[in-house]
Amino acid sequence: LCKFFGVSRTTAINAYRWLEQEELVATKVGSGTYVKENSPLHSETFQIPWSQLFIPYPQTPMTSILKELVSTPYASEIISLATGMPDPSFYPLDIFNSLFKKYLCATNPADFGYIPTEGYQPLRETVASMLSQQGIDTTPDRTLIISGSQQGLYLTSKVLLERGDYVIVQSPTYIGAIQIFQAIGARMLILPEDNSLNLDILEDYLIRYRPKLFYIISTYNNPTGQVLTEQERRDLLRLAMRHRLVIMEDDPYSQLYYGEKPPLALKSLDNSESVIYMSTFSKTITPGLRTGYLTGHPALINRLALEKQYVDLHSNNFSQWLLNLYLKQGYYEEHLKFTRREYKKRRDVLVKTVRRYLDKEISFDVPDGGFYLWCKIKKPITSARLLQEAIKCGVFFVPGQAFYTVPSEESEFRLCFVTHPEPVLVEGVKRLSKAFELIHKN
Ligand code: PMP
Predict the structure, then answer these.
(1) Atom 12 of ligand 1 has which residue's CA nearest to it?
(2) The complex's ipTM?
(3) For ligand 1, which residues put their CB under 6 angstroms from it?
C-alpha cells in the first residue's frame, strides 16, 4: 500500500498513530485497525475538507483586490469609482427589446441549440467585417467568438504557457491578466510604463529570457490610459518579428476615444502573424452580454476552439444572435458616437473637479480615451491608507497595487469616470478631498 501511494512506512505508521490519537480509529491486536463506531469518519455530518483538495497554486495568488471591492457590501449612498463598468442607463435595452420582438420568433430555432464552438457564424462574419473596417485584415474563419476578453486571455494563456515560462507585461497592467499568469505559474517580466515603450529593456528581456508572450493593452491601458504611438507600434512589431515574440494585444477600449482617433491596432500592422488580437463588447455596450472576439493565426484559432470546448462548448448564442442584428442594423456605430460624447463630458468634469479640489494632493495625465483616470498621490500617503478614509467619507476607488505584479506600498489609484453622471463624479471628488483632510488632521 505504501508503495502504491508513494509514501514511506514511517509516514504510514505516523498517520495511523495520529488517527488513533484523534480517536478516529481503534487498533485490535492481531486483528487490525478499524474506524470507530462513533468516529466522524462514519458520521453523516462528515464534511469534505474542500480547501485541502484543491491543487496548489504554482504561485501564491495576490488577494483579488478588485473582487473584494466589488463584493464588499456597501450602502447605496457610497459612490463607487472603482469598477470599470459602463453607465447601465446607457445599455441599449429598448433596441434589444425591439430586436427581440421583431426577429426572435422568425429565427430558426436551431440557432439557439448547440452551435459550433467558434461562434454563431453570422456574428463571426459581421465581426470579421467590422475588424476589417478597423484596419485588421481578417476573415470569419480566423475569428473566434469568446465569452468576454477575460476568456480570451485565459484560453490563450492556457494553450501557450507552461509553468515557469516568461511573459512580459506592462507595469502597471490589467489585474485580470496578472492573475491568470500567476495561476498558470508563468514568470512575469515587467516593462515599466514611463510614457513610452522602453524598447531597450524589452530587447534585453527577449535576448536573456526568450519570453513566450508579451501581453499589452496598446490603446488606453487599464489603469494608466496610455496609448502606444504609431512609431512605437511599428518598432515593437519589428522587434517581435526579429525575436519570434508572440504579442497578445488586449484592446477593449480603443473605440472609446474622446478626441482624435488612436493609431490603428498592432494587429493591423502585423505582417508576420505575431499578434493575437482580442476585444469585447463589455465596455462599449454591456458586460452582461459576455461576448468578445479574438483573431489570430488559423492554427491558434483551432487550438483555442478546442480548449474553449472544454470550458463552455460555445459562448451564449442568444447574445451572439442579438449582437449580430444590433451590429448589422447600424446601431453599434450610433451607440459608440453617443457614448464617446457622454464619456468625454464625464472625463472633462472629473478632470476639472479633481484640479479644483485635489490639485495639491494628486497629479495625473488626462487620458485621451478609455474609462480611467490614473492618479498619483503627491505626499507620502499610500493609496490603501487613503482608501480607508475614503470609504468612511462614502467613496470607493481601486488602489494602485492591484495593477502590479508584486504588491507594494504605493501611492497611486484608479478612478473610473464613465459609470456615473457628472454630479455624482463631482460629489465623489468632494468626498475624496474630505478623506485627504481627515488624513492631514490625524
Ligand atoms: N482586458 C481588460 C484590459 C479589461 O479592462 C477587462 C475588463 N475590465 C477585460 C479584459 C475583461 O473584459 P470582458 O468583460 O470582456 O471579459
Answers:
(1) 149
(2) 0.99
(3) 84, 148-150, 174, 176, 217, 222, 250, 252, 280, 282, 287, 292
